[in-house]
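ok trying this again, last paste got cut off
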Amino acid sequence: MKSARLGVVPEARVPVPERDAPWRVETPQGGTWVREGGTVDSVQWVDLPRGLPHDLAAVERAYFAWVPRLSMGVVRARAVGEGLSLGLAPLHWPIAIRLGSAEEGEGRRARGIEGGLLADPGGEIAFEVYPRAEGQRLAVAVRRLRPRLPRRLYFYAQAPLHERATFAFLRQAVRESARRAEAGDRGGA
């Protein structure tokens, strides 16, 4: 799927690719697009034939562990009460994005975006699993984000960084899923 870099997707045609896209085993896919009204969706996913390596809380922890690696240590995630904040090292200030407490549902763990230097309040980041006949589809979805950066700057700076980090994380999820399956085949756990 291609990113709709600067175009606006009418609300009635907002894609749900993480649910409806063709099955492509172990190949991360996704994109970023603008909804009517200016909010942004950025959704990436991967198809896992062997299922998830962990529960969604563990998937979320692993995802936020990727943040310092891909920002060369500049951005770090930190628990703040029941929420999370992504801040600039070493003082964790300013806060790039604040996330609320986790809400869990069937196959879903989400945190509301409460604001920060890079985003106005509104929207969410969600970790979702969609069962498929072939296995499971793991999706990382930022929906209805209200970027503070001007649209062009967002799409040329913040969006590619987010996509790159998420694709790297999803490739790691594929490796972890394969490693756990191999250990299970040998009788390990």
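PB: full thing came through this time. The helical segments are 17-20, 56-70, 151-185.
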